[in-house]
Design brief:
Layout: H1 10-19, H2 31-39, H3 72-85, E1 90-97, E2 103-109, E3 117-122, H4 130-145, H5 152-155, E4 157-162, H6 167-175, E5 186-187, E6 190-191, H7 207-210, H8 229-240, E7 245-253, E8 257-260, H9 272-290, E9 295-298, H10 299-302, H11 310-316, E10 322-328, H12 342-365, H13 369-377
Parallel strand pairs: 3-4, 3-7, 7-10, 8-9
Antiparallel strand pairs: 1-2, 2-4, 5-6, 8-10
Helix pairs in contact: 4-12, 9-12
């Protein structure tokens, strides 16, 4: 628990805690000094209901940058400007009104592809967490301004960006109380609902540990789920949208953690391992930028009980499979992150978001990372209809096609029959085996190639040699049916041709003539 103490009363409060045996530590000795670092030394009074007293010098014209924090008017002008200058890519819309009549403005970024999946980003659900708003607007700007340079995992998504979930509370932190958390709706003599306790999944559960029924508490959950216009607007947009949302990312501060459902119970969510892996991908990408370490885990395991949160709802009700809450820095400065740390924080988090998008796409398509990399960096040959090759291996990353008529083939394969009847190569080995089988005869042998399930290194072919192969002079036909290896290649002694099937003078095109010696055991000379 953090609480503020007036400077003249610090000694008195410390003495009282000591007498009662309550351990404590001073996290920030001078909050005013830290606020000056956060907002800048030049403080001007601004009585606008949409701006803050500490509005920086470079912002009165409405220019957006990430060298300081900005008020609501500047942020909304920035969103409108993005839509105005990139009408083919993004637009803004008003998804609701707050209890004080302010717009809840959503930015949508899309190239219009019907097959796009959707991603939700939001910040500022808790009014005092200014850095969350700055990071979300930074990500939106980077995507729009550099859309053509972005990886496919970014451009194949529709981005729904709600930079300020809680406009009333955000303005209140700029004009009145910097540490205000809730929105500004009135309940009796008390103001505000904690919007991140006002969603339906887990609402009111876990007792007072998860939320509060007291309107005076900073964790007040409201009289019922979605009682607040801000949470109701989010629910309506996501439920009414025809787009398939794949990720829901809600940015907060502070904590330097990446957390996922559940928050209202200690039970793990159904896809706990998958979410843990996705969060770890983000954390590693963030660490690679500036060396900052984020913890990853469920809300209850990493932090505390939280009932009625947005990520529990997005995962449990909206069925968005990758739902995360990212608690931004910093543990040192709490909610008052200095403005010179906005850009470093935003850059590292954006790298984490991109890596998560790539992770999601790999999961969706079922491709391994190596196969995705192969297709991104090299030109893989087309897949002949009669041959089903395995995925690209590490060595070589891709197999270059050669000219072959009538159907393109892989290296070392020759289609001789107009309508070959090829057997499908099925290997239970985790290592890719042959790239295909040669079709020489319209009626290939009914015998199937038997691949041992042992982890024996695979080759693209075996040499056709006599029963007593010479190390230097293999007797092979000019055009072998497989890509032949030199007989001096390290062929494991565990795989030997069946002498009864091999003719010394001409190679047999029938793959059934080559069978592994199943009676052989691994040997030190085998390259396993």
């Amino acid at each position: 628990m953090d609480f503020f103490v007036d400077k003249p009363r610090v000694a008195q409060v410390a003495s009282m805690l000591h007498e009662r045996g309550i351990p404590f530590s001073v996290s920030i000795r001078d909050v005013d000094e830290l606020r000056c670092r956060e907002q800048g030394s030049s403080i001007t009074v601004n009585l606008s209901t949409t701006e803050r007293p500490g509005h920086s010098k470079d912002a009165p014209c409405g220019c957006m940058n990430w060298k300081s924090y900005h008020g609501l008017r500047t942020i909304y002008n920035f969103l409108d400007k993005l839509a105005e200058t990139h009408p083919y890519l993004c637009n803004t819309c008003i998804i609701g009104k707050t209890c004080e009549g302010r717009d809840i403005k959503l930015l949508m970024i899309s190239n219009g592809c019907p097959s796009n999946k959707a991603v939700w980003l939001d910040g500022g659900i808790h009014a005092r967490e200014w850095v969350s708003v700055a990071v979300v607007t930074y990500i939106a700007n980077e995507i729009v301004q550099n859309f053509n340079k972005m990886p496919e995992s970014v451009t194949n998504k529709d981005w729904y960006v709600l930079s300020v979930v809680n406009p009333d509370g955000y303005v209140y932190t700029h004009t009145t109380d910097r540490m205000w958390r809730k929105n500004r709706s009135q309940y009796g003599q008390c103001a505000g609902v904690d919007l991140n306790r006002n969603f339906s999944v887990g609402w009111g559960e876990a007792g007072e540990d998860g939320s509060s029924e007291d309107p005076g508490s900073i964790f007040y959950r409201g009289p019922k789920p979605f009682s607040e216009p801000e949470t109701a607007a989010i629910k309506k947009v996501i439920h009414d949208s025809k787009t398939d949302f794949r990720a829901f990312l809600s940015f907060h501060s502070y904590g330097e953690v990446i957390i996922f459902p559940w928050g209202y119970t200690s039970d793990p969510c159904p896809s706990y391992v998958e979410l843990l892996e996705g969060g770890t991908v983000m954390a590693r990408a963030i660490h690679a930028v500036n060396g900052r370490t984020y913890k990853v885990g469920s809300t209850k395991d990493i932090m505390y009980y939280s009932a009625g949160t947005s990520v529990d709802w997005s995962y449990g009700s909206a069925k968005i499979p990758y739902s995360y809450m990212i608690e931004l820095p910093s543990k040192q400065h709490r909610f008052l992150l200095p403005k010179d740390q906005i850009i470093p924080t935003a850059k590292e988090v954006f790298c984490g978001v991109i890596e998560l998008m790539q992770f999601i796409d790999r999961r969706r398509t079922g491709k391994s990372q190596s196969a995705t990399s192969c297709r991104a960096t090299a030109s893989c040959p087309p897949k002949p209809s009669s041959i089903k090759p395995v995925s690209c291996s590490t060595k070589p990353p891709c197999i270059k096609p050669i000219s072959c008529s009538p159907t393109p083939s892989f290296t070392g394969l020759t289609c001789r029959s107009p309508k070959p009847s090829c057997k499908k190569l099925i290997s239970s080995s985790p290592t890719p085996s042959f790239t295909g089988l040669t079709c020489r005869s319209p009626k290939p042998s009914s015998k199937k190639l038997n691949i041992s399930s042992s982890p024996t290194p695979s080759f693209t072919g075996l040499p056709c040699c006599s029963p007593k192969p010479s190390r230097n002079k293999p007797i092979c036909s000019p055009t072998p049916s497989f890509t032949a290896l030199n007989s001096c290649s390290p062929i494991p002694s565990c795989i030997r041709p069946n002498p009864s099937c091999i003719r010394p003078t001409s190679c047999s095109p029938n793959p059934s003539c080559i069978r592994p010696n199943t009676s052989c055991r691994p040997h030190s000379s085998c390259n396993l």
